[in-house]
Amino acid sequence: MRLILGSASPRRLDLLAQISIAPAEVRPADIDETPLKDEAPRAYVRRLAVAKAEAITLQDGEVVLCADTTVALGRRIMEKPRDRAEAEKFLSLLSGRRHQVITGVAVRSNDRQIHRAVMTRVSFKRISESEMTAYLDSDEWQGKAGGYGIQGRAAALIPAINGSYSNVVGLPLAETAAMLSGFGIR
Ligand SMILES: Cc1cn([C@H]2C[C@H](O)[C@@H](COP(=O)(O)OP(=O)(O)OP(=O)(O)O)O2)c(=O)[nH]c1=O
């Protein structure tokens, strides 16, 4: 089977490379990522991963992998911040608290489709004003759910996680490997 990565995220490609999986092609899907009214975070990421996978036209013999990662504080969904002010708002809400990072993963061929959602708990220390300014100045918040990247400077703000690390970066590798292996991709 030929693996198509349905994602524009360079991080997902890197994560797959970490477990020696090289997609034959990258074919990102562009879909509307607006949450539905009162949509729960888990349902939201699952719906988006499936919608991304269904938006990609496949030939027989092709398998597509799509994912969506979001940060959830209770029922509140934090997607990628629109600007610095929104990143600051998100990080202020996350400061000194524990939240969830949930990734929806969908794998589809023309014959069948599977999907799941994986959750990791992430604890933030209390972020001081100077830490906040330095972090926002770094621009690392851009293009990342919740306005931070655990793989970069934000690691200094995160004393503990519970669950999959790769899930926080954008793709839970143990679960993804198991799902792909069901489609003959190893
Ligand atoms: C919380 C967190 C998120 N992220 C990233 C992972 C995802 O790329 C991004 C969330 O956006 P997504 O919408 O999941 O993905 P994307 O827009 O980057 O790519 P595509 O839709 O084409 O697949 O946030 C980190 O890199 N580190 C982190 O610590």
TrEMBL record:
<dbReference type="GO" id="GO:0047429">
    <property type="term" value="F:nucleoside triphosphate diphosphatase activity"/>
</dbReference>
<keyword id="KW-0378">Hydrolase</keyword>
<dbReference type="Pfam" id="PF02545">
    <property type="entry name" value="Maf"/>
</dbReference>
<feature type="site" description="Important for substrate specificity">
    <location>
        <position position="151"/>
    </location>
</feature>
<dbReference type="InterPro" id="IPR003697">
    <property type="entry name" value="Maf-like"/>
</dbReference>
<keyword id="KW-0546">Nucleotide metabolism</keyword>
<dbReference type="InterPro" id="IPR029001">
    <property type="entry name" value="ITPase-like_fam"/>
</dbReference>
<protein>
    <recommendedName>
        <fullName>dTTP/UTP pyrophosphatase</fullName>
        <ecNumber>3.6.1.9</ecNumber>
    </recommendedName>
</protein>
<feature type="site" description="Important for substrate specificity">
    <location>
        <position position="69"/>
    </location>
</feature>
<dbReference type="GO" id="GO:0009117">
    <property type="term" value="P:nucleotide metabolic process"/>
</dbReference>
<feature type="active site" description="Proton acceptor">
    <location>
        <position position="68"/>
    </location>
</feature>
<comment type="similarity">
    <text>Belongs to the Maf family. YhdE subfamily.</text>
</comment>
<feature type="site" description="Important for substrate specificity">
    <location>
        <position position="11"/>
    </location>
</feature>
<dbReference type="GO" id="GO:0005737">
    <property type="term" value="C:cytoplasm"/>
</dbReference>
<comment type="function">
    <text>Nucleoside triphosphate pyrophosphatase that hydrolyzes dTTP and UTP. May have a dual role in cell division arrest and in preventing the incorporation of modified nucleotides into cellular nucleic acids.</text>
</comment>
<keyword id="KW-0963">Cytoplasm</keyword>
